[in-house]
Amino acid sequence: MELPDSITTCLSQPVHYAICKLGFEKKDTYDINNILSGNGEVCWQAVSEHVCYLESGQSVDYIKSIRSLGPVCESVNSYFKSLTKEQFVIQYASWFHWTNCTEVCLEVFDVLQSTQATEVALGLMKLTSCLERALGDVYLLKGSDCPFLLRDLLASEQLADVFGQAVMNVLRVFIGSPHGLNLRNVLWHGFASPQEIPAKYCAMLLFLTAGLGQLLQTYLLQTKDVLVHRPYVIFISLEELDAFPGNEILSIAEELVKLSSFVLKIMLPFWIAALTAFKQSRYADSVILLLPQLEAGLRLLFTTTNKCPNRLLTAESSALYTTFDEMLAKHLDNEEVNQLPVVLEEPAMESDFLWDFLNHQEGPRIRDHLSHGEINLETFPREIANQIVGFAITILCRFSDEDVFSLKEHMLIKPLMNCASCYQSRFHPISRLKKQVLECMKSIHLWPELATVPEEQVQKIKGLEENAETNTLILMVSEIISQLQYYMPQNCCSSDDPINSVLTERLLVELSDRRICTLYSPRPVLEAVVVLRKISAQCHQVSQQVIAGAGLRYAQWLNKSLRSRQRHNYGRMLNSIKFLSPVLRLILLLITLELVSVHSVSKKNPFDYQQYLKFLKSVLQYTENLVTYTSPDKNKWDETMELTRKTLIKIKKISDRKLMLMHLPT
């Protein structure tokens, strides 16, 4: 991909004019005392007088409003520059408490004292995300289900009731509306370069944030309401996100940034600042800076591969922004195949990684959580930042010229690229199902270690005879395993003990390790996976109930606190465990085999697919009934046996017809 050096902006002409020129057209100096009371409070009426309206009187005239507010913003910026940090803290710190991000607001003040455009842009991105989160908390004082989009939040009646419509209109000139400056979106989506964001707009938004705190304080005193801050998103199981090695590679990363055609030259300061932030252990800052640049680079690649160079720029308010969501989609808005994933599929990791970290509902969804203010920036995990940086470096390498071959072969680069080539989705529903199955199998493998009454004592329980049905069920499982051998690796089944040689965690791990294409899984596949995940979850619950129940009954047996009926029921539980273990392991094996072949099943004719789905739902019904029958308050072990017999008959019939299973790739 050749870098178009002629690109000097990613803002379309009208957007560039609005942000970079419109607010500078009025040259008159504005007196800060017009909008600032003697005790430092914001005079909202004076500020709102600069918002202009169309002839209808209802809709904001954004062009005139930006032009009118330009000198006001300049005055606020100069005022903040005249204050010392101590003066600013004394005057304004308490009015930022409502945001739950006072430190971020104070940090933005520090940034305004410098001349570094990159830091101003970063400060503005952090401020807009914190402000959005805080406004959402205020919204919940009067409503429920806070709007996801800032645009809808600012246009809500709930916020207008608290702050006043005129105040909300002032805010919408700066953020939220695609017709205004829209500072939040042009930065978070990677359209604006550092030098294109005037510092005075950052200063004004900080000023308005303090003013909102003043208004809210008055509102809460009048209504006696209490503002409750929603808890931050907390990332768990960080080890699941570990795809790339550590940050030793940063030593040559800056050189890669300067050489890669993936980086727009106007955005280079953002890349350098992101790597610097990572070195300084400012992990949230590093990721906040990197994500928009990954989007900008992918947008360049997207517009090049799909031959639509006009989409590189911000669209007008009436058109569509080219963002991550569209760039990762299977088709363009004209129904043609999106060529970007095709390019990224060699190797396959880029699309899978981006979907994992940005889009999949069970993934970390880093960009959403960060940009909407849902993450505590002070405790942002290094592990996540390491993965984003690692991914960025691999994509920089992939789109570098051949004359940097020596860099690509560097002893630090090669292991990183190897990790990239081996990457498989971790948060696609199919990947989550694999994880569920293995966790369930680990749970069932604990059963043989359960402390139980010796067999000879169980047989002495009056009325509990040797149950031949248990052996019959185990034999049925063995027969089904024999039918399934065609679909499993060779030499994994012992004729002496088919159950314990096949129904093992090792086999499930081996099958699960086979690469499955998860990108753009067809709807029938996802429908089947939903059912399979429910089946796996029910099996795991049965296992947990058996473990808990067996432990409780054994303790009661030792304490001789079991009544005659309870002793009899305990014996039936122990007999049932003998067949339930192989049956549940068989179901997990079937699920795993389905994962390997489920894409093939989705291509069958509609009748066969519906029959297949009907069968899966019948197995789900069985596992749901098992959860009920094995629960501590039911203990219906005889019913469990009969239910299992009927289900094994269904499984055997399906295996005979080979409707469910397809030939596995070797």
Short description:
Helix content is 60%, strand content 0%. It is mainly α.
List the defining traits of the structure above.
single chain; disordered C terminus; 60% helix; 3 domains; mainly alpha
Which structural class should the secondary elements be placed in? mainly alpha
Low-pLDDT runs of 5+ residues are 659-666
Radius of gyration: 31 Å
Q: How many beta-strand runs?
A: 0
Biggest beta-sheet profile: none
Q: Please tell me what the overall shape is.
A: elongated
Number of helices: 30
Average pLDDT reading? 87
Question: What string gives the helices and strands in order?
Answer: HHHHHHHHHHHHHHHHHHHHHHHHHHHHHH
Cα distance spanning the termini? 36 Å
Q: How large is the share of residues in beta strands? A: under 5%
Name the assembly state: single chain
Share of helical residues: 55-70%
Task: Count the domains.
Answer: 3
Would you kindly provide a written description of the structure presented here, covering whatever features stand out?
This is EMARD protein. It holds the Pfam family DUF4209. Residues 131-211 form the DUF4209 domain. It is a single chain. The protein has three domains: 13-223, no CATH class; 248-422, no CATH class; 429-657, no CATH class. Helices cover 60% and strands 0% of the residues. Helix 19 crosses helix 21 (413-421). It has 666 residues and is mostly helical. It is elongated and about 100 Å long. The longest helix is centred in the C-terminal third of the chain and has 38 residues, at 564-601.
